[in-house]
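Interim report, section 4.2 (structural modelling).
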Amino acid sequence: MIELWRIAPPRGRIVIALALAVLLALPLAADRYVISVLTLIFYFAYVGQAWNLMMGYAGQLSLGHALYVGVGGYVAALMWLKLGIGPWLGVFAAVAAAAAFGAAIGWLGFRFGIAGVYFALLTIAFAEFTRIGFDHLELTGGAAGLFLPFEEKRIGEWWNLRGGQLLFYYLGLALAAGAALLVALMARSRLGYQWRAVREDETAARALGIDAFAVKMAAVVISSGMTAVGGVFYAFYYNNLFPSQVFEISRSIELILAPIVGGLGTVFGPVIGAFVLTPLGEGLTAVTGRFGINAPGVKAVFYGVVLIVIISAMPSGVWPRLAALFGLKDHAR
Amino acid sequence: MTTLLAAANLSKRFAGLIAVNQVSFEVAAGEIFAVIGPNGAGKTTLFAMIAGALTPDEGTVTFAGARIDGLTSDAVCRRGIARTFQIVRPFPALSVEDNVMIGALLRRADMRSARAHARAILEMLDLADKRAATASSLTLPDRKRLEVARALATDPKLLLLDEVMAGLRPTETDRMVAILRKLNRDTGMTILLIEHVMRAVMALASRVLVLHHGAAIAHGAPKDVVRDPAVIASYLGAEAVG
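Predicted structure of the assembly:
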């Protein structure tokens, strides 16, 4: 960590310190709406980072990451509702459950040589099975959803993640910053280099003694486990879980847009991507709401257009361009 | 001399075509051994069976006293055999130094020593000034050198080189020959090379195996092999002997 700070360019240090200071102090000045949009940005920066680790670094395309969000959210919510175990403990079970799903999918895919687009299809299929499964699971309320009771008297119980907007704002900030730090550290580790080798050319990586199967398994397990933490956050923030919403493929897509727009395989890509995309999406919702337009698909269409425009202008994402422009080289690339 | 690598009765068929037919040979520790032969003779298939990229249909490969045929390519590398690819396969988006460092990480846990090792190897292969360039920006001769550097970084006991001289100019070939010779002399590294560039084979190899239609047709010291009538007829052509 100290090493990371030491190698960061001076300008980069200033920008990071300033951004963190502003975000920490912002609730003093900003209104509820801005805080809620920022909370959403942190959420997408976090889950985007988890996905980026698997796709951007290890080169394994998952289009079913909503599965891990959902499993993580459901496990922690159930533990709290049925067993009275709070989310700070429940998160461990959530991570373990999602990592087990990730390991199962990874094992099937990597063991039997299902790669690229076919692996992506496998991840979609698993997310869909799980959605259908949860639709019929009595324990979780099936398709009718699972609700976390919102009780006035419990507000402020941060140990149960019962709190107002500010609690989730700071928790989201900590998650997003922590994930960026974790990815930066891992990218510079032996495993991080082995991931990139496998991403670039698996045959050549294996010829250098890299156990490609083990390395890819590590990526999917870490990524799914990390994503589950985002799921716990989601469940306790929104207080409800519906299989048709959390496991939907559109959720998986939504979660990968930030890293793609921001820059795959970079530490700051998912963060920048979330800061670019989320306000645009929320702004659009606000505008259509203002004019009383009810068009459910408009956000997806809008994201599609934004994605096309940004990727055609900056094929490797916004962050590499920004970094070059302002002399903030991303050492942990 | 102890035997480092032994191939016994190796065969490989592809849908009826016998690519390698009952080939046996031994490579002694510390020697430079060359496999030559016309295109389609089965050299690369033989090489792939040693490197773990293909499993032999028949026969065995023994390395440092243990069977390695049927092992995966990464397991073979961990045993101490590093290879290059005839069609180079750098990690295109990574820097030259990172390419080599990934090789160095096989036997080094900490990044600092892996990077230092990578730099030393880049120095040896005249790539030090290009270490920050992305591998995709290199010219073909540099990519060939990078291929060797990356393999060397894994500290192999046996280095398998698949036509690393192809596409190099004569001066570049001589430089590569000098590097390999120095490596062999200084570290005692055993080298097995597949090569078409006879100038390099004659300068490097202590022994040569000649393949034709998947079978070994000659075996021995380079100067004897190039006078072998069967080798001249099938591969070199009469004028090559001069």
